[in-house]
Design goal:
Elements: H1 3-13, H2 27-30, E1 48-52, E2 58-62, E3 74-78, E4 83-91, H3 94-101, E5 114-117, H4 120-131, H5 133-146, E6 152-158, E7 164-170, H6 178-188, E8 191-196, H7 199-206, H8 230-235, H9 242-245, H10 260-267, E9 277-278, E10 283-290, E11 295-299, E12 309-312, H11 313-324, H12 355-382
Parallel strand pairs: 7-8
Antiparallel strand pairs: 1-2, 1-4, 3-4, 3-5, 6-7, 9-10, 10-11, 11-12
Helix pairs in contact: 5-6
C-alpha cells in the first residue's frame, strides 16, 4: 500500500474525519468533549450540529434532513455562495450550550442548513480547492507588497466548492484593502473575504514550543483569548522584564492569568506592604512575599535588601498587633530573642601576611651573594 493511501485511510478511520489532513492541526484546539454522549435519549433533543472548518473556524447548522450524524462525519453545509465542507465535532444538547457560550444563538430562520453527508464529487472539489491554498497565499502576499500595504497575509482558506476564499491577515494599523480585493478577485476568480487576526491567533496557527518546554497553549487547547496586563505580573511578584514576560507572539504570556486569582486570594492572608514592623532596635519594611511557603521577608531599608529577616505571615500579623498596642518585640523571630549576628568570614584570619615580605628579602640576599661571587671572580682574573 502506498504511503499516501495509508495516510488517507488513517484519516478516514479516525473519529476526527478531516482533522488529520485537511483541517490541519487546529482540531485538537477546537475539539469539544461531549460528556453527555453515553447518556441515552439526550442527544436526540435538538437538531443543531456543530461543524468545524480550518483555522479555528466553527459554525452551527441545522440538521433539516434528520441525518444520522455523529462526531467525525464530513458534511456539506450551506454557505454564501454555494456550499462548504466541514467536520461534525458536536451533536446533541451541548450544542445549545456552546452556542450560548460563543454568543452564536440566533433565531432558527437565520441558522444555515446541512445539505448532506459529503459525496465523492464533493470531496474531489474540496481537495482541489485545498491544493490551491498555498500558492494563492504566496501570490497574494506579492500583490499586497506591490500595493505597499502594511499587512501580512498569514493564511488562505478556500471554501469547499472553491467559489470563495478567506484571506487571514495581520496588521498593526488600519488597512485600506479595497484595491487589494479587486486585484485578488481578478487574479483568482473567486469571491474574496478578508479576515483580520491578532498576533496570538497567528502564533496559535503556526504553533511552536514555549519557554516552559511544552507546546503553546494557543496551539493546543485555548479557544478564546482574554486580555493580559502587567497587573497580573505585579500581583504574583513577577519581575517586569519584557523579554521574560513576552511569549512567542511578542505579547504578554497568556499563562500570567492562570494563577492570578489564586494570588489575589493568597494576598489577603499576608500583611499589607505599606505596614512596617517595629522592634526595640529597628524598623522593618516588607521586601518580598513567598506566597507558596507563606513567608515574608523584611528589610531595614525601604528599597534595598539590608539585614533581611524572613518570618511567617502569622508572625508578621502578630507583630503588627503588638505594635498597635504599643509593644515592640526584641526581634522579628518567633521566640522574641535577638538574632545572633553573623560574623563575616575572614579567609586570612590568623594568617601571617609578612611571609610574602620574607621571601622577597631572601631573594635579595641571594642576588647580593651572587653579585659578590661575580665581583671576586672578575678581580681574580685581573690580578
Amino acid at each position: 500500500m502506498d504511503y499516501k493511501d495509508l495516510k488517507f485511510k488513517i484519516c478516514n478511520e479516525c473519529d476526527r474525519g478531516l482533522a488529520c489532513s485537511a483541517c490541519g492541526r487546529q482540531n485538537s484546539q477546537l475539539n469539544t468533549y461531549n460528556w453527555l454522549e453515553d447518556v441515552p435519549g439526550i442527544n436526540e433533543t435538538t437538531d443543531l450540529v456543530e461543524v468545524q472548518f480550518k483555522n479555528t473556524r466553527k459554525g452551527y447548522y441545522k440538521n433539516v434532513g434528520q441525518l444520522n450524524l455523529k462526531k467525525g462525519d464530513i458534511v456539506a453545509v450551506e454557505s454564501t455562495p454555494g456550499h462548504d465542507i466541514g467536520t461534525v465535532t458536536l451533536t446533541g444538547r451541548l450544542v445549545i450550550l456552546q452556542m450560548k457560550k460563543c454568543n452564536a444563538l440566533k433565531s432558527l430562520d437565520d441558522i444555515k442548513k446541512i445539505y448532506r453527508i459529503a459525496k465523492d464529487t464533493d470531496m474531489q472539489k474540496y481537495r482541489e480547492a485545498k491544493a490551491r491554498e498555498h500558492s494563492t497565499m504566496i501570490e497574494s502576499r506579492q500583490i499586497a507588497k506591490n500595493l505597499g500595504l502594511k499587512m501580512k497575509i498569514g493564511d488562505v482558506e478556500y471554501q469547499g466548492d472553491g467559489n470563495k476564499a478567506i484571506f487571514y491577515y495581520i496588521a498593526d494599523e488600519r488597512v485600506d484593502f479595497r484595491q487589494l480585493i479587486k486585484q485578488l478577485a481578478a487574479a483568482f476568480h473567486v469571491r474574496i473575504e478578508m479576515k483580520q487576526i491578532g498576533a496570538r491567533q497567528e502564533a496559535g496557527r503556526i504553533g511552536g514550543t514555549g519557554p516552559c518546554g511544552r507546546e503553546l497553549c494557543c496551539a493546543t487547547w485555548m479557544k478564546s483569548f482574554s486580555s493580559v496586563s502587567t497587573n497580573a505580573a505585579r500581583i504574583q511578584d513577577v519581575p517586569l522584564n519584557p523579554t521574560k514576560l513576552a511569549g512567542m507572539c511578542a505579547k504578554l504570556k497568556c499563562c500570567l492569568n492562570y494563577e492570578a486569582d489564586e494570588y489575589v486570594e493568597a494576598r489577603k492572608q499576608f500583611p499589607s506592604k505599606d505596614v512596617k514592623l517595629q522592634t526595640s532596635d529597628a524598623e522593618y519594611f516588607l521586601f518580598k512575599n513567598d506566597f507558596l511557603q507563606g513567608l515574608c521577608s523584611y528589610s531595614t531599608d525601604k528599597n534595598l535588601a539590608i539585614n533581611l529577616e524572613t518570618i511567617t505571615a502569622e508572625r508578621a500579623k502578630e507583630i503588627i498587633e503588638m505594635n498597635r498596642q504599643g509593644e515592640k518585640p526584641l526581634s522579628l523571630q518567633n521566640n522574641g530573642r535577638i538574632k545572633a549576628s553573623r560574623k563575616p568570614a575572614d579567609l586570612l584570619d590568623g594568617a601571617d601576611i609578612s611571609r610574602f615580605d620574607k621571601t622577597k628579602k631572601k631573594k635579595k640576599k641571594k642576588k647580593s651573594t651572587r653579585n659578590t661571587h661575580q665581583n671576586k671572580t672578575e678581580q681574580a682574573k685581573k690580578e
